[in-house]
Fold:
Amino acid sequence: MRKEKILPGTKPHPSPLESHGSGGFSLLELVMTIIILSFLSLILIPLLQSISKGGDPVIRARGVALGQALMDEIMNKKWDEATPMGGGPLNTTESVRGSVAAGAIGAEGEIRPDYDDVDDYDTLDEQDNFVDQDNTPFSLKGYRRRVTVTYIASNTANITAGNPVGSKLAAAATDTKRVAVRVDMPNGENFSLVSLKCNF
Ligand SMILES: [Ca+2]
Ligand SMILES: [Ca+2]
Structure:
C-alpha cells in the first residue's frame, strides 16, 4: 500500500471526503443544492430562450438597412410635385406663398422608377422582392416594407418614441409631410422609421 511521504513540519492533506469530518455531503445539503439549481433553471432558461429568439443581430441589421435605404431614397425627392428640390412657394392651409396649391398625397400617374416627390411613395408595399433606388430588383425573403405619407399639422404635439404619430395628421395640405417606413422582419418583429419633410 502506497504511503504518503510527510516532510518534517508539515501535515498530510486530508482527502475531499475527509474534509467534512465524518464524510461527504449530507442528505440535507444535497436537497438544498437541487432546490437552488431548480430555481436557477427557472430564471435562466426563459432568459436564454428570449435572447436566442429576439437577439438575432443579422436579421435586425438587414431590416434596418432595408428601411433606411428606402427612407434615404424618399427624402432625396422633391417636397411636392410642383416644387423644385428643397421646396418652393406653394399654398397650403398653413401658409399662402404662391399661386399654386400643394398637391394631394400620392403619385401623379407615375410608376416607381419615375417617382419624383416624397408623397409618390405613399402606399408603396414590397414583400420578399424589392427594388432599390437604381430600379434594380433584389430579394430578401421574409421581409416587408411599407410606406405611409401624410400631411401633418406643424403646431401640435412633438413626435416621440411613445407618440410616433406626433402632431395631428391632417387631411388637407400643410407645410409638413410625415414619411413612415414600416419594416416587418422574418423573426416576427417590426419597426417604423419616421421622418418629416418640411417645405421652407
Ligand atoms: Ca410625383
Ligand atoms: Ca406626388
